[in-house]
Amino acid sequence: MATKVHMEALSPTMEEGRLVKWTKHEGDAVKSGDTLAEVETDKAVMELVARADGQLLKVVVPEGSTVPVGNVVAWIGKPGEKVDGDGASAPAATAPVPAAKPAPRQPPAPAPLPAPAPPAPQPVPADSTRVKASPLARRIAKDAGVDLKLVQGSGPGGRVIKRDVEGAPASSAPAAAPAAPRPTYHAPRTAEPYEDVPLTQIRKTIAKRLAASIGPIPHFFLTTEIDMERAAEAREALNTQLGEAGGKISFNDIIIKAVALALVQHRACNAWFQEDHIRYWNEVHIGMAVAIEDGLITPVIRNADTKSLREISTESRELAGRARNRRLKPEEYTGATFSVSNLGMFDIDQFTAVINPPEAGIVAIGSVAAKAVPDGDRVVVRRRMRLTMSCDHRVIDGATGAAFLRTLKQMLENPLAMLL
Amino acid sequence: MKPLEIIEAGLVPYSEALEWQRQLADDRITGQLAHDILLLLEHPPVVTLGRNSHAAHLLRSSGIDVFEVERGGDVTYHGPGQLVGYPILDLSGYKQDLHWYLRTLEQALIDALGVLDIPAERNAGFTGVWTRGRKIASIGIHVKQWVTWHGFALNVSTDLAHFDRIVPCGIEGVVMTSVERERGAGRSEPLWRESVGAVVAGFQKAFGASIIPSPEGAALAHGSTRSARL
């Protein structure tokens, strides 16, 4: 009797492993202890070792496949020996394209066609007791005379659930159905219903980094509208003062300064979430999101709370320029304690930004636009700006974030206070 | 406490070190080698491709040797000033769990960097050790019958410009750093010795191993290729 070779667990939590390389091939003689294949997970490669002597009769999964722990990957036996089911247990392995899951989850047809039973898209296990189905689905199926093997499951893990069984044709019907030509309403251009495109490394990295943020970080968002009339006036006055020689001070410079000063008063928001602790920063380093040709980068204005508007203005322009030319040194775009993202120049009214871990917060700045606002019993036109703060709830609670925003709003609405 | 012999082997060509590891691992599996070993050495400049490598991550061809090896992970660079450690451990003496091993290896390096006053941490989802958002040590391992080989590479005073040739470990945009860079210049002479001591202390603490210093002139260490630093 041939011996099965199973995918082994490299750790108790491992559910599947990627078979990266067969070091023995079908027909090779193997001894117990010989390495048959290499299996990879994370940054570790483990050798799958033969536990029997004989010949490697059959290799069931190709290199590059991801295989659930416990599944058969090969058979060892005497030369010429028959293998059970001859590889019938193979389908659990996914194709080398890692994205593909074996069972394409089709929505249950609302009204099943009466006549031809469509061939199941995957081989059905021969033993009906192995069909995964909920107890309720089993009972309904039994009462209605439905063969569970012919029902496409839409529950968790392909499990057959109640709604899959209800309305399914009784098992006697499909057997007799002739292979009538199927009407082709849609005439597919290619044979495949979909295309799986493997992730490029950059896509993987983006996916990983952003998912590492929005996934595990419990974000919440606080939006406030700020009257920028006085900030606009202050900006115009300062720019007149600076004249042509000094570079112009932007709204963004004023916002960076105000955010930095507000953070000094609200250290609870100037923090990093670390694995087992929260690091509250006593220095304020503001990351400033800058769009570059194929992505974005956040150069850091260090100690922004101690710098003048003019210094911030010169530094941010210089950093943004070098960021676009990819001339930033690593220490210039790492180590921010809080970030500011501004899409006001793109006429975005309001948006939410994704936190850049390990920072605990980021403010998203919309455009400064003239709006009609009530002022006592009349309506006046004021320049207003909407600002949304994204908070990591593991560090910042709603009231904590709101208190910070109140200070920030007061500063921007009374820019002279920043000079104190 | 499991005994762990430390062997400092100096500057060793990659292929030679690979041979040693395979031999030591085989001996550990058969039991000819009765205790665990930590090989500490440096390589002449070399680029290695792990089992998960994508050719595109080797950005620039160069005169540097390229090896394809059986460790996990993507492409990486080894060269002078980088402390490379190859633990040959029988995990049946610890825990038969590769993730436990990867995490404990990271912990040993985090502890070692702590001794050097460098705050270090993990970066969830990316095996290796990081400090202030930059990567300071890489990890890639191989296991057969629960005996490990391959291991880690800690940048002590590595010329970081070499990492520009590759996308280290397949993580785009990763910034590499070194002990020297994190600690500031002017201390490079004792830095290597200090780093070796810190790594040994890290292993002692994280794995709870009892350290056996290697006898002088260990069989593996080639006198002629010993690094000037040793």
Map the helices and strands.
The complex is a heterodimer of chains A (420) and B (230).
Chain A: E1 3-6, E2 16-22, E3 29-30, E4 35-41, E5 44-49, E6 54-59, E7 65-68, E8 72-77, H1 135-144, H2 162-165, H3 172-176, H4 201-214, E9 219-227, H5 229-242, H6 251-265, E10 271-273, E11 278-280, E12 286-288, E13 290-292, E14 295-297, E15 300-301, H7 309-324, E16 338-342, E17 361-375, E18 378-392, H8 398-413
Helix pairs in contact in A: 6-7, 6-8
Chain B: E1 3-11, H1 14-30, E2 36-42, E3 46-49, E4 65-68, E5 75-78, E6 82-88, H2 98-115, E7 121-123, E8 126-131, E9 134-144, E10 147-155, H3 179-183, H4 188-207, E11 210-213
Helix pairs in contact in B: 2-4
Name the descriptors.
A: 420 residues; alpha+beta; OB fold (Dihydrolipoamide Acetyltransferase, E2P); Dihydrolipoamide Transferase; Chloramphenicol Acetyltransferase; four-stranded antiparallel β-sheet; 18 strands; elongated; B: 230 residues; BirA Bifunctional Protein, domain 2; three-stranded mixed β-sheet
* Unreliable residue stretches of chain A: 86-129, 171-189
H-E string of chain A: EEEEEEEEHHHHEHHEEEEEEHEEEH
Largest interface: A-B, 31 and 41 residues
Quote the CATH topology of chain B: BirA Bifunctional Protein, domain 2
Helix content of chain A: 10-25%
Multimeric organization = heterodimer
CATH classification, class level of chain B? Alpha Beta
User: Main β-sheet of chain B: number of strands, strand sense, barrel status?
Assistant: 8 strands, mixed
Q: Work out the radius of gyration of chain B.
A: 16 Å
Structure notes:
The complex is a heterodimer of chains A (420) and B (230). Chain A has 420 residues and is of the alpha+beta class. Chain A has three domains: 90 residues, OB fold (Dihydrolipoamide Acetyltransferase, E2P), CATH 2.40.50.100; 49 residues, Dihydrolipoamide Transferase (Irregular); 216 residues, Chloramphenicol Acetyltransferase (2-Layer Sandwich), CATH 3.30.559. Chain A has eight helices and 18 strands. Chain A has a six-stranded mixed sheet. Chain A has a four-stranded antiparallel sheet with strand order 1-8-6-3, with no helix packed on it. The N and C termini of chain A lie far apart (87 Å). With 230 residues, chain B is α/β, with parallel strands linked by helices. Chain B contains four helices and eleven strands; from the N terminus they run βαβββββαββββααβ. The radius of gyration of chain B is 16 Å and the shape is globular. Classes of the chains: A alpha+beta (420), B alpha/beta (230).
